[in-house]
Design a protein that fits this description.
It is a single chain. Helix 4 (about 75-90) crosses helix 9 (about 245-255) and helix 7 packs across helix 11 (about 320-325). Helix content is about 30%, strand content about 15%. It has about 450 residues and is an alpha/beta fold. The strands form 6 sheets. Strands 3-2-1-8-12-9-17 form a 7-stranded mixed beta sheet, sandwiched between helices. The protein is built from 14 helices and 17 strands. It binds uridine 5'-triphosphate (UTP). Uridine 5'-triphosphate binds near residues 99, 100, 101 and 206. The site of uridine 5'-triphosphate has 19 residues, from loops.
Amino acid sequence: MTFEQAKQVLDNNGQMHVLRFWDALDIGERAQLLEQIAGLDFESIARMRGMLKTSAAAAAASEPTAPAVVELTADAHAAAYAAGEAEIRAGKVAVLLVAGGQGSRLGYEGPKGAYSIGPVTGRPLFYFHARKIVGLCRRYSVRIPFYVMTSDANDAATRAHFEDHNFFGLDRNDVTFFMQGMWPALDEAGRIILDQPGHIFMSPDGHGGTLTALAKDGCLADMERRGIHTVFYFQVDNPMVEIADPAFIGLHVARHADISVKLCAKREPKEGLGVVVERDGRFEMVEYTELTDEQANRRTAAGELYFKYGSVAIHVFSFAFMKAEADKAMPLHVAHKKVPMCADDGTVVKPEKNNGYKFEKFIFDVLPDAKTVVNLAFDRAEEFSPVKNAAGNDSPATCKHDMQTKWLRWFKAAGIQMPVTAAGAPVFPMEIDPAYALDVTDLKKKGISLRAE
Ligand code: UTP
């Protein structure tokens, strides 16, 4: 993009202030700024500005109701599992990981997936995900394409991490990295914020950016070429996720669902998980912050929470639905944040108070477009323990504990009683490579025994 073109497009969009330091910039800074301007998505920026102008006088929404949630009986589980296995074996399943986030709560410098979580080996989150796919490929004698979404901030480090670990045993031809979009932040007046005289402040466009990015980077075309029919979606911070869980996939396929959502019973009424609701015949995700106290605490006659289940961002998409959604503009979510800002004299100010608006798209906003949604309940002790915070709830310590107590149960079911503490934790750290045993059935087949030395 030339300077004249940049001027034109900024002028057309009321953002000429972006060039106010132009004369003072050196050649490198000018080139960088022009490149950033060329990459701006002015259509979305216009929507962002519109959002800031119209205040929060939202239309009165009708009362949401709790949706039907499937709790599989043993027989139904077996049938769904067999259907899912057939889908996987036929090479129709792809795995999609979103790992473009900034992991600010954990406070880890690198990509969150490179964070060490193996209780014995210290292996990273990516290892546990990748090794499950290795295990699935072996078990079903199939190639499972793995798409990993990164962002500008962690793309190079993520690729290097996979290289350094020899792709954890995956076939590198089946691993595709693709980058989500980045968006500028706006000030109160809807103006793009510069964080340096020659640089626009940018941040990832949210996990809802996945669909646009998949389309833009040719991943949807790649899936189509490979004959993918069903896509398993998950987040980087949960090493206990049952990747491509056959029962989940089988149920989704059998019901011809557009999207399926795994749900677990919330720990407390206001736990920080989204809640799937039905409203006016459509599904939607309500964030926990948007539930009123009455809704969050409402109980059924049996004394259970009415909105009992939370979503843990484990989904299955039909490829056709995903492709159709990729063309649509998703809703925007705004957050008032502290954004480093370049003052008029060119100095960079680190604000003490929220001074800018960041915008994101959320993947679950496709729910209202889905004709058929399957909500499947699962046992969180088996599949969900995310690494969100550095300490306390949902931290590396709780995650390692939960991983190991799950493995303890596997050993017990395989006839091996490991020594445990009074609190039920293993006395010795333990770890199982998912490619060695994907589940308790695999472990039992190994015929291992415990030998006292
Ligand atoms: P979180 O909402 O937990 O955000 O992301 P985060 O960035 O990982 O962590 P915090 O909030 O800064 O502490 C849930 C999942 O969505 C991905 C993350 O990588 C994680 O797997 N994500 C989030 C993206 O891929 N892109 C985004 O823009 C945001």
